[in-house]
Specification:
- The structure is a homodimer of 460-residue chains.
- With 460 residues, chain A is an alpha/beta fold.
- Chain A has two domains: 270 residues, Aminopeptidase (3-Layer(aba) Sandwich), CATH 3.40.630; 154 residues, Glucose Oxidase, domain 1.
- In chain A, 40% of the residues lie in helices and 24% in strands.
- Chain A has 13 helices and 16 strands.
- In chain A, the strands form two sheets. An eight-stranded mixed sheet of chain A has the order 1-10-12-11-13-16-14-15, with helices on both faces. Chain A has an eight-stranded mixed sheet with strand order 3-2-9-5-6-7-8-4, sandwiched between helices.
- The relative contact order of chain A is 0.17.
- Chains A and B meet through helix 1 and helix 13 of A and helix 1 and helix 13 of B.
Chain lengths: 460, 460
């Protein structure tokens, strides 16, 4: 009889907790949807500051403004965390032409991030199309040497989540130019990594390899890539040449900062739950979805806690990471100092897939049994808000360095709807106008709800 | 032993079916995402035809083009279904002013659909704000008589799905003007039914009541509504007046058509699964999300079946319904003729909530046990495509008349992400550019997958 009583009192207390959680999550969503401030904060970041590539004056401006903004909310701690960041500049706008005999056809290109410049007067060479890095090897140095390699691997539309398409097609941008250089290529033109057919070159980082010549590399719009490809199919080499000129340069590393706000835990002040995004952006637009939305949602998590009177047991930090796009130095520094300061990190959530309607979270490398428990305990609570897709998957580049430092930390990726992200990603279209207020706010509320659940219940 | 064998062979055959279903659904999504045609079909409808309000020349043009388009796909049957539709015209663009002493402040308004015109020189009267229809009754005829009633009920942002916000705030548009007339109001100005703060009046139908005077009614943009409200708060009546002029008229009913394509069932040709949207639109824009996406997705279901070589057992129809927006005559006619022709309707799916990322389907009025079975049998199959939210809920205005006619027909609403729909709904922003190709195609594939499952397995 005693056993039965115990069991039923456990059930009751579980029900009580669930009901209490359910009330708190409803409060969080109401606050974010009715009194939300992330949308107007994002407007300021996009419209009054704009692009903020690491090392730029605008990046510094964004750091200073973010610090002030956090100060205005009266969190328990607000501070900067210094880190040195790469400082790459695009310089004057690029030029690109397909040269077909005497005909010069202008095409929209943009230097890939971290690329070297072309010679001052530009670079002209025969151009050869490949669909993959693998294809380079089959062609070999005899074919590639002295040419510009045109990486035209297609986006695979069959993936349901576009992140998978990006990962697959993206290899040619990350690694293609360095691979082409190994075979003696003099330049690389890379099809923009996007499911969309449009006239925008999508920039993004490329990675050189030590000991291999750095060749200039640019993204070309998908429509121009299709045009170039069809011209190459119709005419045989060496009739089609390509010319491009880009003016980028790598400056010495610059001093910059992560911006951090904290609500200190009432019970376990040295245990941390981090929620973050990255403050830096590429230079072509306003970095609205990438990743102004992520930082402003993270800030909103803390604001919503304060507004609803929720005092977390553990310390909760909103971190605006610096330099995700071309270096990851902010993320590295955050983990390094966490170790140095003997902090204990129990979880981190990153929002860096755009501020679209939230669908759930992915949990990085946790045991299947743990993911099952998370679903069992929390899925029902998140279902009314349609953010209950709790899956295995990646987290985020800025929080990943925590993985090595804190073996038991649970790293989590915020997962919004993915369909529109890569249409605008790293292009001039990544602007405030393409962010929907409610979508952004729902995401912030979803993040706050998960932080709340972790804070209350941990993962055990 | 025999019993055990039987059980395990049942399990095997179930697994076999699931595997076969899973392969077919993958094929459907691949076809829609790689070779999809709904996006380009929608482009034509929006850009080459545009708005197509019932009874208009453009509506007729859209009927003729749709019929030709369906013919080009070589379905088993393509035909028109005649129906008489209301013919309302907006006439010249409306004018609206807040009159504050000698100051005339122009505000964006648009006549509500089916509204009567103002007198030729416009209508000027004192204006009184109410937040709900209920508030009218508390004020009574002594206060309302001779005035313009300003319905300024807010959109409730707390709803997660915006359809609920629309239903709640929308009452003042559907029923408000007729209610105000009962108390002697001379006109009605209604806050646009949208969660967005912008400068667009959102049109949409209003419903007059027999025996009550028809008063002119217009939508006002949410920003202008806020301005008017704050002016009314600051100054006491009768200082603030309102002037508006609208030029709409009701013409005699016009002949129009539903457009229908059919793949005839191989086993049960007289059993029907309908998938549809509505071809007509409001007159202010291109009717892209409302409901060009719905008709083009419905057509795509049939195209995908043909392209993948799938021959349904039951007859599957894509129906482009006419006159959803201001009459529902096409839906009525479809059900009426289905009865007359002794058809048997087993299911109908309507897409009329925009062409956004699909999240699932809602099932109208089915028993809880049936919904449970649907989830048990099909949820897992739809989960990889993130369209597995299978809930109780509404279906669609065009297929609802089937409910009375066919008691066992299952009526289903296609449920895309709802966040952006009411931002552009019934405004000049409902244009092709606001439709995302992949979102649209994923929706078409989701609809085709559900039709396939119903065709294969029914609901038992």
């Amino acid at each position: 009889m005693k056993k039965i009583l115990l069991a039923s009192s456990l059930v009751l207390s579980t029900l009580g907790l669930q009901a209490q959680d359910s009330v708190m999550i409803r409060k969080i969503f109401d606050e974010a949807l009715v009194n939300g401030q992330c949308y107007e904060n994002l407007r300021y970041l996009c419209k009054n500051i704009g692009q903020r590539l690491s090392g730029s004056a605008n990046a510094q401006k964004s750091v200073e403004w973010s610090k002030k903004l956090m100060d205005s909310y009266g969190f328990d701690k607000v501070y900067l965390q210094e880190c040195m960041v790469p400082h790459w500049e695009r310089g004057a706008k690029e030029q690109g032409f397909i040269i077909d005999g005497t005909n010069r056809i202008p095409v929209p290109i943009a230097a890939l991030g971290m690329s070297v410049a072309t010679p001052k007067d530009g670079l002209t060479a025969n151009i050869i199309e490949v669909k993959s890095i693998k294809e380079l090897a089959t062609l070999g140095e005899s074919v590639i040497k002295g040419k510009i390699v045109f990486f035209n691997g297609p986006w695979d539309q069959r993936f349901i989540e576009t992140g998978q398409g990006y990962g697959t097609a993206g290899v040619q941008r990350f690694a293609g130019p360095a691979e082409a250089a190994k075979y003696g290529a003099v330049g690389a033109i890379v099809r923009s990594i996007t499911p969309a057919l449009d006239n925008y070159p999508h920039t993004g980082g490329t990675v050189y390899v030590d000991g291999v010549k750095k060749i200039p590399a640019a993204a070309i719009s998908t429509l121009a890539a299709n045009k170039l490809s069809s011209m190459l199919r119709l005419r045989k080499l060496p009739l089609i040449k390509f010319y491009f000129k880009q003016n980028c340069r790598q400056l010495p590393d610059a001093k910059s900062y992560n911006v951090i706000g904290e609500i200190t835990g009432t019970e376990k002040p040295n245990k941390f739950i981090t929620v973050g995004g990255h403050l830096d952006s590429w230079d072509l637009a306003e970095g609205a979805h990438d990743d102004g939305t992520g930082v402003m949602q993270s800030l909103e998590v803390l604001r919503v806690f304060k507004a609803t009177g929720y005092r977390p047991k553990n310390s909760v930090r909103a971190v605006f990471f610096m330099n995700e796009e071309n270096g990851g130095r902010g993320g590295d520094k955050y983990a390094e100092l966490a170790v140095k300061n003997k902090e204990e990190h129990i979880a981190a959530i990153e929002s860096d897939e755009g501020g679209f309607t939230p669908r759930g979270f992915s949990f990085d490398g946790i045991p299947a049994s743990m993911l099952k428990d998370i679903n069992k305990n929390w899925k029902k609570l998140l279902e009314p808000y349609e953010v209950d897709r709790l899956t295995a998957g990646g987290s985020g580049a800025d929080i990943e360095p925590l993985k090595d430092a804190f073996k038991s930390a649970v790293l989590i990726g915020f997962r919004p709807d993915s369909q529109r992200y890569f249409d605008i990603h790293h292009t001039p279209n990544d602007v405030f106008e393409n962010v929907n207020k409610r979508e952004l706010e729902l995401g912030a509320a979803a993040m706050a709800s998960l932080v709340y659940l972790i804070d209350q219940h941990g993962f055990n």
